[in-house]
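Regression report. Comparing outputs from two consecutive submissions.

Submission 1:
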Amino acid sequence: METHRKFKKQRQPLYNAEGVIEGTLNILPNLRKLKIDKINQPVKNPHFKFVVDSSGKISGFKRHPWPMFDPTTGAKHEYTTPEDTGFYYNDENFLGVSELSRMWSQMLEYAKWNSAKVKNPEYIGYEETNKLVNKIVKEKIYNKSFYKRYFRPIKIDCKGNEGACKFHGTFITLKTWADDSVLLHELAHQYGRDHDSRFATAYLMLVGRFLGHDQQIKLMDSMREYNVEWNGTFQHSKKCFTEHGYTDRAKNAGGQCTTGATKMNLGFKTEYLHKRLG
């Protein structure tokens, strides 16, 4: 899709289209693990026990510290049986023995564990996370000849855990939920604050180079579906299509892939946005 003369805003269509990209952490580390001092961890429920009737048959289980029998009346108190779960055995609602067994097993497994806050052994804090992330991104992205040719290094600030990741012109804010595709999305904003065709082209280039041509092809297909426009043409070789499972497209493909370590696609404006703004 070539749009060299118009730059329409297409934020929501692009957000919809990029949902096909796989969430990876091959570039970024897991920010949540580095910045959250305490994490949820399953611990054994000390109160879990099976309830056995007078014949020695397991009739249910307990998950709470309350007494099994009321000390005054001797009545059974607070334990779960298969009948209590809402499983039905009558003809109208019969689930089958295998399904009932699976559901009961799941309930037992859930009852054996509690969730507890424990100290995160990978926690390094905000400042150290910033240092580590900027070091990693510099080594894996900024130092590459492809990136140097078309983009510039941007400082990354991992401030906050919730909310949107943002491009601020001179730096990027990444939240703890960010993955590799989010990082590339923000870097692509060097070619447009709006999600116009310049931005979409830069994003496709970064995805193809750092996430792989398979992800780039998926993203292009999804962009077409949502009518997202970009500049120039991204071509892929017969070998590339075949290796990534697109055998139907390999038949008509020829030559080499448009993108690579040093090649930019046709129609892309190489002038940086920050220079135009400056």
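Submission 2:
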Amino acid sequence: MRHKSDFDLSHLLAGLAGAAVGVSVVNSQIEEAKKSRAERDNPEEVREVCTEVGYALERWEPEEYETEDDFVSALASYLNDETGFEIEEHPDTHEGQPDVLVEDCLAIEVKISLRKSERDRCVGQCAAYSREWVTWIVVLDEAASVTGDLENLLADKGLEHIRVFPFDFD
């Protein structure tokens, strides 16, 4: 004979299991919504490009240049030599002008100064780019705390999927 408390507990467990499934579905939908058009249209190519470019960035040893545009040109040239992918500098697109666009699936924004106003502008730019492409930020010669602030701001805006690559000249 079942006790009333056993019956209530099974309903509670069934309810909790249903809620867990519901949370999992919602989380999956949120992650899918964060994917760029490129990731949804051609996930294999995006994975290949991101892997190769990520390895290339890990090996990159940028020189010091006077302007951000000089860094962008150096990075674009380096990525072209290292990966052989189609690299565009400052392409005009409906989402704006990313500094570097790789194979029409990875946008890279380069920053050498991250004052608050520039950091906020960068987040806005990258939010727009991330609708169309996987988006990364290359930060040059900034303190770890500044890079951390940028990563925290991205996370606060739901943009934690945008990777930040810091480079220091010391």
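Expected: both submissions complete independently.
Actual: both completed, but the second showed a warning that disappeared on reload.
Relevant detail on submission 2: Helices lie at 4-34, 37-41, 43-59, 68-83, 116-132, 144-156.
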